[in-house]
Amino acid sequence: MKALYFILITAVIVSCQNQGKMEIEKAKLATVDSMKVEMEKQRIIDSMQVEMAKIEEAKIETQKEIVVVNRQSPSSTTTTTSATTTKKKGWSSTAKGAVIGAGVGAATGAIISKKKVQGAIIGGVAGAGIGAGTGAIIDGSKKE
Questions:
Q1: Nearest to residue 141, comparing CAs of 91, 94, 90?
Q2: Element (H, E) at 69
Q3: In this structure, which of 9, 23, 38, 100 has its CB flanked by the most CB atoms within 10 Å?
Q4: pLDDT tens digits, residue range 8-31?
Q5: What is the distance of C-alpha 88 from the center of its chain?
Q6: How far is the CA of 90 from the CAs of 44, 81, 93, 143, in angstroms?
């Protein structure tokens, strides 16, 4: 009977030691995995910073000052300085949203309403308002 107790106690002690080693290995693996995740995050941040630097460099490049010297005669020299700026082309998101919203609202109002003209007018006005609001939100997020 004593031998059976001895074997049982030995088995419990050995299993506890192995379990402790397993927990240590799991903790090591979790640490390594979290370090890999952090390294990947840092790599993404670094690549984004490089891209942002390129964009800033391009902005500076477009805003450089150009000096033009016109020589008419050897005695007189005219110097003209102009700064180049990028001109925004096309419609703003607010205008696009208003036009698209008005069109969709008018069509929907004409389809749904029994009085087609009145439904189209009401739907167009409501759609234009909603579209302009949505476009303004998009414009605001582009500025940030």
A1: 94
A2: strand 65-73
A3: 100
A4: 888 777 776 666 667 778 888 888
A5: 21
A6: 33, 28, 9, 16
